[in-house]
Write a structure and sequence with these properties.
Layout (H helix, E strand, L loop, with lengths): L2 E10 L6 H6 L14 H16 L9 E4 L7 H14 L6 E3 L5 H12 L3 E13 L5 E16 L2 E11 L9 H11 L6 E3 L28 E3 L1 H5 L5 H12 L1 H4 L4 E8 L3 E10 L1 H7 L1
Parallel strand pairs: 2-3, 2-4, 7-8, 7-9
Antiparallel strand pairs: 1-5, 4-5, 6-10, 9-10
Helix pairs in contact: 2-3
């Protein structure tokens, strides 16, 4: 079984404790929270949040994947968080993904590679939302406990590319990814989850390469820009996008092919396409 569904069992942040209210509710102006202190303080909060979420895991026998901040180039911080989690949960830290916002696509690739039928997922990262001044305000560490379940039909990851990039403009990896996506796509892309947020200029560099997808997109292609509404959620972003794909009636009932583009802190770029295969498609193909 290559398809998957995502259920969010627990969502915890300073602004809301309900994932559906966050995604589908009305956008409201945020209250100012304590300012950014340091990565050391952030990692401490990640560890505290991990205890809250790990305590809610209902099936500890299932594999557990941790989606964590993009610390690949910050070895000391990465090791600090990894070692702390290993001391707290020695039997549940075999899969630590330090990819930030791009971790969701890597997660599904890992699930497919290992042919897992059920996977627990804990995502932890700093979160930021736009304030009235058009700037991102630090909201503290948020966390998600989710369960990914394999299915016979549903969203299937058909491609996954992850490339490190220090500077999106100088080291543009998206052009090669988009060319590969255009070459491998079996049908037109109907919905694109894009990373732009309209505040940071570098967040919209994906637009510079959009013409490379001309043969698989058209005027009917729908664009989802979750960062405009949700802000920057780091490692939580991938899970939130997958949750929308598998739960939103507007997406599930209307679209059959999606492309997810992720960018994280000027370090990673990733694309993943998902193909919806319904029972009707199977029946018509016989």
């Amino acid at each position: 079984m290559k398809a998957f569904s995502v259920s969010i069992e627990s969502f915890s942040s300073l602004s809301t404790h309900d994932i559906d209210a966050l995604i589908y509710g009305e956008t409201s102006s945020i209250n100012e929270h304590h300012g950014w202190q340091s990565w050391d303080a952030c990692l401490y909060d990640c560890i505290i949040k991990s205890k809250e979420l790990f305590a809610k895991v209902e099936d500890p026998q299932a594999p557990l994947v941790w989606l964590l901040p993009a610390l690949a180039y910050q070895d000391e911080l990465k090791q600090l968080l990894a070692n702390s989690l290993k001391r707290l949960y020695p039997e549940h830290v075999s899969h630590l993904l330090f990819y930030g916002a791009t971790g969701g696509s890597a997660l599904i690739a890992l699930v497919q590679k290992n042919a897992w039928h059920k996977v627990n997922v804990i995502a932890l990262d700093a979160t930021f939302k736009a304030n009235k001044q058009g700037e991102f305000s630090y909201q503290g560490v948020a966390g998600i406990l989710a369960v990914v379940t394999a299915k016979k039909v549903g969203w299937v990851q058909t491609s996954h590319y992850l490339a490190p990039s220090i500077d999106f403009i100088k080291h543009d990896q998206l052009s090669g990814m988009f060319v590969k996506t255009a070459q491998t796509a079996q049908q037109a892309i109907e919905v694109i989850f894009a990373p732009g947020n309209g505040i940071e200029p570098d967040s919209d560099v994906w637009l510079n390469n959009l013409q490379l997808l001309d043969q698989v997109i058209n005027e009917h292609t729908h664009y989802e820009l979750p960062n405009y509404k949700l802000g920057k959620m780091g490692a939580l972003e991938g899970i939130v996008n997958l949750y929308q794909l598998t739960t939103s009636p507007a997406i599930v009932e209307c679209y059959t092919h999606a492309l997810v583009i992720s960018q994280e802190q000027a370090k990673y770029q990733a694309t993943a396409s998902y193909l919806w295969i319904s029972e009707e498609v199977h029946n018509n193909a016989k």
